[in-house]
Amino acid sequence: MHIIIETDGIITNPRPAYWQAYQDAMKQVGLACADEGTFWRVIRRGDPISMVVQGGKPRHITAFETAFSIALSTDSFAEKLELHEDARDFFAQLKKLGVCHYVTRCPHAAALAKMLTQVAGSGCDSTVTALSDDQVNAQLQALVGSNRPVIVLSTGERLLQVADSLGYVPIGIASGACIAKRMPRFGAIATYRDVIAFCEARAEGDTPLVRAGIQGDHR
User: Fold this and answer.
1) What is the torsion angle, in degrees rounded to the nearest 10, for the CA atoms of residue 64, residue 40, residue 43 and residue 197?
2) CA dist., res. 84 & res. 73, Å (int)
3) CB 3.0-4.6 Å disulfide test: which of 1, 52, 58, 126 passes with 117?
4) 8 Å CB contact between 34 and 48
5) Axis crossing angle, helix 136-144 with helix 157-165, rounded to the nearest 10
6) Is 71 helix (H, G, I), strand (E, B) or coil?
7) Confidence (pTM)
8) What percent of the chain has a predicted confidence (pLDDT) above 90?
9) Number of helices and strands (H, E) in the chain?
C-alpha cells in the first residue's frame, strides 16, 4: 500500500503560522485584528475571510486578501510552523502501513522536510514534494506509479478532489485548516480527527475503508 500524506496540518500544526500571517496582513491594511480563536474558526470553516477584516471596506478587504496570500508564502510563515505534539507517533504509525510519500501545497517543502527529519527514524526518507496546482495530478501519479491501493491523507479541498479523480482513496484528516464536516463534499470517503484515529479505524476495519478495499487486521 502507498500512502500520500499532506504534511500541512497532518504532521505540522499550521495554526501559529496562519495567525502570524493574518496579523502581518492586517498590520499592512491598518486595521485591528480579530481574536485568534475567531480567526481560526473562520479559516477552518471556510467562511469568507472578510469576516475577520473588521470594519474593512471593500478596498481594505481586497488589500488584505493580497497581503495575506503573500504572507502565507514568506519565510516568516515557515518559521512559525510547528510539529504536532504527536508527530513522532504519527510518522511511526504511517510507516507501518506501507510506503509513505509526503507532500505539501505550500512553498515551504524544504522547511517541512527539515522538520520531518526530527521525527523520522534513521534511514527514513523525509523528502517532501512541493505540489504545483497545475501539475498535481502528474506529480501524484509519478510518486506512486502503477501501485495500488493508494491512500491520500489530506487536510483540504484540492488534494481530496485530485485523489478522488485519480481513483485513489481520499481520506480527510481534520487536524489542520479544515473542519471534518466540510471534507465529504470534497470527496473524502471518511474523515478522522488525526493520524492515530485513522490508523485505529483501519485496524478495526472501519466500513468506509473496507468498502474502498482497505482491509482491517481482523478480516
Assistant:
1) 150
2) 20
3) 126
4) no
5) 60
6) helix
7) 0.94
8) 89
9) 10, 8
